[in-house]
Amino acid sequence: MRDSIYILDRLVKRYGHREACNIAHMEIIRGEILGIIGPSGSGKSTLLRLLNLLEPPTSGSVTFDGTVFDGHTSVDIAVRRRMTMVFQNPLLFNTSVLSNVAYGLKVRGEKDNREKAYQFLDRLGMGDLAREHAATLSYGEAQRVALARALVLGPDVLLLDEPTANLDPFNVGVIEKLILQANREMGTTIVLVTHNVFQARRLAGRVALLLDGREVEVGPTEELFSQARDPRTRAFINGEMVY
Ligand code: ADP
Predict the structure, then answer these.
(1) Which atom of ligand 1 is nearest to the CA of 213?
(2) Atom 12 (ligand 1) nearest CA
């Protein structure tokens, strides 16, 4: 039996009459990188917010590591700390890079938070950025710092919403390396939302396609790319889908 960190069951999220997400059943395997692809408006970000337990489902449930969360369950801080999300346009605090990365550790009461933050930045090859002021960073550097700030907390799950949209190829490469490094060295389970099928193919072990809030198909990346069962998957992967 596979070891699923998330099990989604008849998970529905509606905003008014609009059904943003409707997943009959989905499992996310501990330690995997799962790519979620799909056109704009297909429910990818909504799904990520549901996984982050930030928004209650309209119906159905998200089981995280054995605990069932439905629209009525309150989320314990200890559970919330096990997952962290990085958005497309991260907001950094108006302080140094080091303070930004140390902040979460400090909140958790870690004494040597600045030392730990520096060591972590250094390990990621970003030690030279530590003294910089967040406001002076390039967009690509800011995104790298946002990722470091999330990873330093050692989450079990990293939820990434289009982490490299609008980035230049150099920074895309650096961020992708950080994502793979976190997964391989720290065993972080990663859910990567992207409309970029090439990125999903480069990073993910499995990929799921969403359309209109529903899962069309999920499978091991190379299988999905070479022999998708659903014609809509083939069309999306080949860039032939009009949306
Ligand atoms: P994607 O991330 O794939 O672009 P989203 O999850 O952002 O898709 O959106 C899915 C659908 O849900 C869209 O039709 C969007 O307009 C709607 N939606 C998302 N968030 C909200 C919200 N907070 N209020 C109302 N509608 C929303």
Answers:
(1) 10
(2) 20
C-alpha of residue 178 to centroid of ligand 1, in Å: 28
Q: Distance from the CA of 212 to the center of ligand 1, in angstroms?
A: 10
Q: Enter the DSSP assignment of 239.
A: T
Q: Give the SS3 label for residue 200.
A: helix
At 45-69, the pLDDT tens digits run 999 999 999 899 999 999 999 999 9
Residue 130 tokens read as 């530590």
Q: Whose CA is nearest to atom 1 of ligand 1?
A: 41
Q: How many structural domains is the chain composed of?
A: 1
Q: What is the CATH number of the domain that holds 75?
A: 3.40.50.300
Q: What is the DSSP string of 171-225?
A: HHHHHHHHHHHHHHHH--EEEEE-S-HHHHHHH-SEEEEEETTEEEEEEEHHHHH
The model's pLDDT over 17-45, given as tens digits with 9 standing for 90+, comes to 999 999 999 999 999 999 999 999 999 99
Residue nearest to atom 20 of ligand 1 (CA): 46
Query: Is it the case that residue 70 has pLDDT exceeding 70?
Result: yes
Q: 155 is in which domain, residue-wise?
A: 4-92+137-237
Instruction: Please name the residue whose Cα sits nearest to atom 24 of ligand 1.
Output: 15
Render pLDDT for 128-172 as a digit per residue (tens, 0 to 9).
Answer: 999 999 999 999 999 999 999 999 999 999 999 999 988 999 999
